[in-house]
Design a protein that fits this description.
2 copies of one chain form a homodimer. Helices cover 39% and strands 18% of the residues of chain A. By secondary structure, chain A is α/β, with parallel strands linked by helices. Chain A has 2 domains: 138 residues, Thiolase/Chalcone synthase (Peroxisomal Thiolase, Chain A, domain 1), CATH 3.40.47; 219 residues, Thiolase/Chalcone synthase (Peroxisomal Thiolase, Chain A, domain 1, 3-Layer(aba) Sandwich), CATH 3.40.47.10. The first copy, chain A, has a 9-stranded mixed β-sheet with strand order 3-2-4-7-1-8-11-10-9, with helices on both faces. In chain A, a hairpin with a 2-residue loop joins strand 5 and strand 6. In chain A, helix 7 packs across helix 11. The interface between A and B is large, with 60 and 61 residues.
């Protein structure tokens, strides 16, 4: 890339169910927090990158202008990205290329989603309509269904068990217990997961991330301005994106998500780093099986060996490579547009030491991985403490 | 910008009502045409930028992955932009910054929309839901309503008449009559416009762009590859984006669209060119009044003098500065995601001389202007014949 880019401000709302909030309000809370954190105000922003996955969920079909309005940003370039559950990462990438290209100098990235305004069944329907409308959605498949297929394939191929999946949920709930922004601050046991209601075999309710309202935000800038805006800039060492064929029915091996591997390969090449250099990671555990497959695709474990990491506590705080110290999508919550941005916020907080002691992992290099749909969008970003 | 970017391939479907088509099919027709035009194939693409404004209209809520699938593009970075009626220009900008930053080398931009699958009243509703959902949409305002307010203000302030508005429609229908891709290839008279059904005073049916299905596509690349892929590259000399406050109720002067002026100012500064250097333009005539206001904001006429240009035929083919030789949104059609891309396709066709003799305007420098909502997104791009 032509210019280096750093994160110099962060903002985050609590994730949860906020029946009285609007999308623009959530976005404004996170956005203003990030501006304040960077010590700047709305007129300093020359690119506003908004990530909202679904207009249908909030009722605002073209959402970015109302977010700009709530933030008092007028005149500056305005952009909305959509990449399903990776929408927040798409919004980061949009700002990243704008800054790296020289088109803008200081960008505000705001990811937000309001998912609980409509009844849960309607929200699930809107999410299902993000699947292929031609050949798969009409047959009734939903996203728990897709990831149920992935889990079944992984269990058959590699011997992963329902208990292994449950261990991911238990770990992430433990981490979220200490995160003041998390939707679920409740410890759970393997037994709780196994006894929770079946959603899509073998995934049970406690294997699934929830419907969430929430927003998160970043101020990004180029190397020329980073030191002026922050004593603790966090550098984007790599930002990679890869795609995957759309129809699950046409995939050769459902136990893998090749776009994650491809994006990771690109990110490692861009940064000159490898999986061993990563101190901790925030990854896309929309369903517990996803986290296990992602371990493998990122090279944290060998193929088919992902479950071993969680069995041996290597991805818990205190382990070899802590994953999802924030609590992840599973327990922190998953407001689609906010999720990718929230991962970056967690990285910055860890680097700065701005987290509860019991979930502090620290380190110098962190990786975030966020995907849309079942991997049709895969983002991998590597951050370094400045 | 760090790298120069050129258009080296174009594709376009006919615009119109295609009850048997799907979004992905339209996108594939335009996309494959652009690849063929550039002499490349899907695996050569390392960035696919998809512009679709509304998932609700087509039934595919996260549309980019199905477009990638239809084009056989897998693995490459995939992106979806949404900027309401300027979605196509947002998709171009996304590719432009990716190329200029060095993140990608050869990008395919595909803009598409399927607007006639749902009944017209439902489509109008989905479009209205792009307006502010908090304070304006609930009061019943639709986009014809917003532009009716703009027209009323312009008439009161500057003496623009309903006949002036009608002249824009007559000119653009005349141009579309010779465009094989246009939705309406039917000449109309001022009288036809004035006698057509009132939609939102003073705008009548023939002052309004239609609901359209269609797609258009571009191959973009950097200076390193442009000459290899095309003997007739078209260079992007400037690409500017500006925003405007969201609530029409809070605007001081409805007879102006300040974001268009701001984007034009930026584009002129980037290119070192001015309005006098522009040989022809494709602009956003979603309603006839928009074209007149845009003349003023782009500096083609003085403030309040826009109507004089159309009265004196200066924006007709053969005039001083032909505007919308393609027939514009008004008569070529306005499939939201395709529109901004289609403007660029028209520029390339004119530069190459690939249009019917009676609508050939030629030239060396052209400008496109595309806006979303009522100017919350304003894109101005300047192209130069290579």
């Amino acid at each position: 890339m032509n210019k280096k880019v750093a994160v110099v401000g962060i903002g985050h709302t609590k994730f949860g169910r906020f029946p009285d909030a609007t999308l623009r309000e959530l976005a404004a809370v996170a956005g203003f927090s990030a501006l304040e954190d960077a010590g700047i105000t709305s007129p300093d922003i020359d690119f506003l990158s908004v990530g909202v996955a679904s207009g249908s969920l909030s009722g605002q079909l073209s959402p970015a202008a109302s977010v700009a309005d709530a933030l008092g940003i007028t005149g500056a370039p305005l952009y909305r990205s959509e990449a399903a559950c990776a929408t927040g990462s798409a919004a980061i990438r949009s700002a990243y290329t704008a800054l790296a290209s020289g088109a803008s100098d200081i960008a505000l990235v705001v990811g937000a989603e309001l998912m609980t305004r409509v009844p849960s069944a309607k929200a699930t329907e809107y999410l299902a309509e993000m699947g292929d409308y031609g050949w798969e959605y009409p047959h009734g498949i939903t996203f728990p269904g897709y990831f149920g297929l992935i889990a079944s394939a992984h269990m058959k191929e590699f011997g992963t068990t329902e208990e292994d999946l449950a261990l991911v949920a238990v770990k992430n709930h433990e981490n979220a217990y200490h995160n003041e922004y998390a939707q679920f601050r409740k410890r759970i046991t393997v037994d709780d997961v196994l006894k929770s209601k079946m959603v899509a075999y073998p995934l049970k309710l406690l294997d699934c991330s929830p419907l969430s309202d929430g927003a998160s935000a970043l101020v990004l800038t180029t190397e020329e301005h980073a030191k002026d805006l922050s004593d603790t800039p966090v550098w984007i060492e790599a930002n990679a994106l890869a795609s995957l064929n759309n129809l699950a029915a046409e995939r050769k091996d459902l136990a893998t998500i090749p776009s994650v591997r491809l994006a990771a390969k690109k990110a490692y090449a861009q940064s000159g780093l490898g999986p061993k250099d990563i101190d901790f990671a925030e990854v896309h555990d929309c369903f517990t099986i996803a986290e296990i497959v992602v371990y493998e695709e990122l090279g944290f474990s060998g193929r088919g060996k992902g479950a071993e990491l969680v069995r041996s506590d290597q991805t818990s705080i205190g382990g070899e490579i802590p994953v999802n110290p924030s609590g992840g999508l599973k327990a922190k919550g998953h407001p689609l547009g906010a999720t990718g941005v929230s991962m970056a916020v967690e990285v910055v907080k860890q680097f700065r030491g701005e987290v509860e002691r019991r979930r502090y992992v620290g380190g110098e290099v962190a990786l975030t991985q966020n995907m849309g749909l079942t991997g049709q969008y895969s983002f991998v970003t590597i951050y370094r403490r400045g």
